[in-house]
Amino acid sequence: MGLAAAFWIMAVVMVASALAVLFLRNVFRAALALILCFIAVAGIYITLSADFLAAVQILVYVGAISVLIILAIMMTREVQQGNPVNKLEIPAAVVAVVLLGIMVYAVTNTPWSISAQAPLSPTTVPLATRLFSEHGFILPVEIGATLLLAAILGAIVITREK
Amino acid sequence: MTIGLTHYLVLSAVLFCIGLYGALTRRNAVIILMCIEIMLNAVNISLVAFSSYVVPMLLTGQVFAIFVMVVAAAEVAVGLAIIFAIFRHFTDIDVNNIHLMKW
User: Fold this and answer.
1) Rounded Cα distance, B8 and B45, in Å
2) Model's pTM, two decimal places?
3) Cβ-based contacts of B33 with chain A (< 8 Å)
4) Do the Cβ atoms of B83 and B30 come closer than 8 Å?
5) CA dist., res. A138 & res. A56, Å (int)
6) Is B81:A158 a contact under the CB 8 Å cutoff?
7) Cα–Cα distance measured from residue A84 to residue B31, given in angstroms and rounded to the nearest whole number
């Protein structure tokens, strides 16, 4: 019962703040709504007993990515210009609603093979074992590290003054 | 009514479509990046839901969600760097006015 209540609260907060990102006129307030959406996603992870991912969500999204986005909004001085839309508003709405209908239809009509076992909890040690053990994901981890290094260097090179 | 896998997948689909609509219609480049982040979060929710309902002992969905987060962090760093460069060149980040490559 508590899990269901937590799920519905997080779901309502998440969808409402995602809609606020779209429809708030002030871009800075839209960024704050995006942070609220990220926090609600972390709450959804906790209801799925993914505690490590919830902590990473708070650290990476709420801590780092939102600061970067707010920095970009401040640097580009677009706060007063608002949140204008282009000419594709109605076709894009139709596409989004049709895609949503297809996905909901597919999800509700698929017989998922739900496992009877309860999910692992806590997940930090099993995740580390999966990531770093011999038959785990050590090569993708190294590739991810290289990708992050390349992204940092690329960001520095692109933004550097001539 | 207990919360099951379907609830999480429908929630993820709703969030993805909100992000898709925003990424297609907004003209502010920073808002477009924010909508792409919303879409990546929606995908992560469905991955974690599959992980804990279908293969609760394997955690492969959560491992995949971690890699999605890594790529999202790299994407937002490079994306905002590109927006800075465009802003310095055009003093504008309205994507309707940035049509150098449009014939």
Assistant:
1) 7
2) 0.91
3) 69, 72
4) yes
5) 19
6) yes
7) 10
Helices in B26-59 by DSSP H: which ranges? 29-53
Kindly determine whether residue A96 and residue B20, on different chains, have CB atoms separated by under 8 Å. Answer: yes
Q: How far apart are the first and last CA of chain B?
A: 55
What is the interface pTM, i.e. ipTM, of the complex? Answer: 0.92
**Hey, how many other C-beta atoms are within 10 angstroms of the C-beta on A41?**
29
For chain A, counts of helices (H) and of strands (E): 7, 0
Any idea how long chain B is? Answer: 103
Q: Name A85's bridge partners.
A: B26
Residue A103 near residue A110 (C-beta atoms within 8 A): no
Q: Do B85 and A159 touch (CB under 8 A)?
A: yes
pLDDT tens-digit map of A11-40? 999 999 999 999 888 888 999 999 999 999
Q: For residue A91, is the peptide bond before it cis, meaning its omega torsion is within 30 degrees of 0?
A: no
A17 contacts A34 by C-beta, under 8 angstroms = yes
CA angle B89, A74, A65 (to 5 degrees): 100
Distance between CA B101 and CA B98 in Å, rounded? 8
Between helices A2-23 and B29-53, what is the axis angle to 10°? 160
pLDDT in tens, A102-149: 999 999 998 888 887 877 778 889 889 888 888 888 999 999 999 999
CB proximity under 8 Å: B 44-73 to A: 44-45, 48-49, 51-60, 62-63, 65-67, 69-73
